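Batch manifest, entry 17 of 40.
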Amino acid sequence: MDFVVGGFYFINKVPVGGWLAVATKQSGAPILLLEYTRIRIIEIARHRVYFEVMDGGQKGAVASLSQTSAAVYLGVAAPKQGFAQAMVSYGAVEEIYSRAKRATYWQQTAILVAENVCAAVTLNTELGADEVPDAFKPIPPGTYKILVPPSPRDKTMTAVYRSRMDSSLKSDQVWFPIEYGDNSRFIHLGDVSEGSVTVMELSRWNAIYQSLVSHRSTDGRYVGQLTVQK
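Output type: C-alpha cells
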C-alpha cells in the first residue's frame, strides 16, 4: 500500500492477543493500539511511517511502524459508525465447573446476544469469603454503554483458555468496559465472573469480539450498547 502523508488509516490487523505494539516517536517506548484505532500519517522517513493516534486510550500519541509492518497492520477498512447492539438475558443459577480454577462454583448464568451472535455467559460467581471478601453482584437490569477498551488486560488472566482449552482464541486481552459504576465490569472471555459479562462459550468469543470492536460511536468513545434484562 502507498501511504499518503496527511491521510487517515486504521489498525486493520493485530497480533493474537488483540493489541498492536508501536514505537513512540520521542523515546521509542512501545504503546499498544486496539484494532480499528484511527491514525493520521504525519511523516514517512528512514523506512518508517510516523502517525498520530486519533482515538482510543492512546489518543494524541505520536508513534511509528516500520514501512514493512505498516503494510501488514494498517489499512483503510473503517469501523462501522454507531453502536453495536448487545443484549443479556438472565438465566438460572447453576453449579458450573471452572476449567481455569479446576473447581465447581455457583454461577448466575445468562445468554448474551451481540449482533446476532449468541453465547452462554456468567454474570457472577460465588467464590467464597476466602477468595472474595465482599461478594460481587451481577450487573442489574438496565441499558449501558460499552466503552472502547483503553489498554490490554494482563495476559496471565486469560492465557490459560488459549493454551489449555482453545488454541483458536484471539484477542483474549481485549476486555470491553461497561459504563456502570466505576467501569470495572467488562465483557470478556472466561468461565468465572466478578460481576462482569464473562463469555463462557469460548467457541463464540472471536465472533463476539469482532462484533463489538468493529463499531465506534461518533465521538470514538464507545463500541456499543448493552441491554440487560431478567
